[in-house]
Amino acid sequence: MIFFLADNQDITRIGLTHLLMSMFLDNKEVSDKAGLIEQLKNATQSDEAAVILDYTLFDINDADELLILCLRFPSVRWILFCDDLSVDFIRRVVASTSMVSVVMKGSPLNEIRDSIKAAVAHQRYICQQTAELLIAPAAVPEERVNLTKTETEILKDIALGLTTKEIAERRFSSFHTVNTHRKNIFRKLNVNNAHEATKYALRAGLVDAAEYYI
Prior knowledge:
By secondary structure, this protein is α/β, with parallel strands linked by helices.
């Protein structure tokens, strides 16, 4: 089986490559959705394939698009290797297909390794943290989302399509600082990526629909 690393963080790709090599598994890096689809087209003609995907950082718009990819490549196993996934998103994906596993980036190494072994064995894997989220009572949603002034400004930049690096340069901040704000925004809005955050912000009037677009 070949594993495709769909993650835009260098340190994560390096770590996953080292782990996969220690397990004698082949892997390739992909940088965007188009490249991933092309690689899967070629791989699934002759080999088994799995994708380790950071959904929150990769250019997949929403759960619908991810599920479409699962249908398009029915033999491919998917490992969502992310932080800050919403419970509703996880529930929907897990209920819709058995081809998707979920493991958090903060999970212990043995869980990350077990998720890879499960993919090789054609099994689904759900890490302990995710399992606990799924069985926890549903939280009562807050009526109002309170973003700080800085978070609102960064959300507006996200709505304009700026990358984390571009926002950091514009604000004379570090990549790490802006990325932390980005994660906090996604958590507060209960969304998983920039596309969903922008849609939410437009619906809620947090950004001006006349100025910003999806």
